[in-house]
Write a structure and sequence with these properties.
Chain lengths: 340, 139
Amino acid sequence: MRSAFPCLSRLAIVGVLLSVPSDPAVAQTSSAGKPTKAFVPPKTAWGEPDLQGLYTNKTITPLERPAQFANAAELTDEQIAELEGRAAARSVDNGRNKGTEADVSNAYNEFWWDRGKKVTTKRSSLIVDPPDGRVPALTPDAQRRAAEEYKQPIYRGGGANGRGADWTTDRSLFERCITRGLPGAMSPSAYNNTYRIVQSPGYVAIQIEMLGGTRVIPTTGGAHIGSSLREYMGDSRGRWDGNTLVVETTNFSNRTLYRGSSENMTLIEHFTVVEPNVLDYEFTIVDPTTFVKPWTASIPYLRTTDQLFEYACHEGNYGMEGILQGARAEEAKSAGETKQ
Amino acid sequence: MRRFIVAVVVSACSTAALEAHHAFAAEFDAKQPITLRGTVTRVEWINPHTWIHIDVKNADGTVVEWMIEGGTPNTLLRNGLDRKSLPAGTEIVVDGYRAKSGLNRANGRDIMLADGRKLFLGSSLTGAAGGETPADKKP
């Protein structure tokens, strides 16, 4: 019988090794230190696990473990208090480092941001595998590709600074209001961290606030589209494994690269409601042409009473023209200085 | 009456990943910090970022229009502002950085009302349009 997930079957062993069960006890809403009863998530009227609702994934927990916690996968209560205190202090501290690039990059006072003020897990990083909480090293081939990125007709990376500003195509797709790709679109950002999940028999749809867009994922598997077809968000196929939605995405375009990944990336996502108000979202990146080993992050999605607002990013993206105009002005200034 | 309090600056030691929608340092010049006092003429309540238009009076009496880039409408709404919060005629002081292009544009790093009250309202992100999450309820 043909597997619904040809790639998954090849990766079965890897998947077992990588699978790090999310521990509901570490979720933010658990009463501190008390073991929680095994939670049984609700079912939809048609009998599938019910993931539906509005969620936010904003958090001050970083993707990668900071050097200061190099030997601590889990933070102490004191460390959490310190981190959250520091985040809260951003709202009352007026200590700007004026006249620096860092101050410009931060761009606005904290009022303009919505990146959360709390950790949403006791872990010191969102990455749960490898155990050091860091993105694995790039392969030599990936390092070569990164070094030659400037030769590409279109900038394919995700960095905000792109590869220059000769034209819009030198800027990232995020900056161009196009897409953050995957798993970028499912990861926390400085604002617009709201998601809406709705279901119908055989489908799960995920509406994404940042840059807009909705992923429509069949939950009955099926074969991926032909390999010649490439999409910014890839081709996602889902299936239920107990109470967990498992989604495998392939067929990525070579324009939506995540942290140097290639169009050969296979993304495996797990969605599990682990507490009444917490959905554990876990992604695993398998791309042997880019990373020396697969890696996995686990991001708590917390239910919210907020609304999901439209973010029609193309409405008035004056920032893009400002970036290009700024680059032209700097070139003119530089040319003038050379003549003198 | 709403209480205005000093709102802030980002600590360089933040461990949170900062992923804004675009590269501010490419648009605005760290070498050109600027302070502008002007009167709001209109607010473009648009994505991806709001733009506040102000008239700035020069010493010689001439008036120049400046455009000030602000936060995204979604975030402002969650923090208690809407398109009517800065009506035409409001006098504000903008502390930011001038655009590299040399045009009369700047980012609104900090914005203060003419009487010295800093924008914006409060530091609590809950209770406003932003709603609550279980994390907000954590003691």
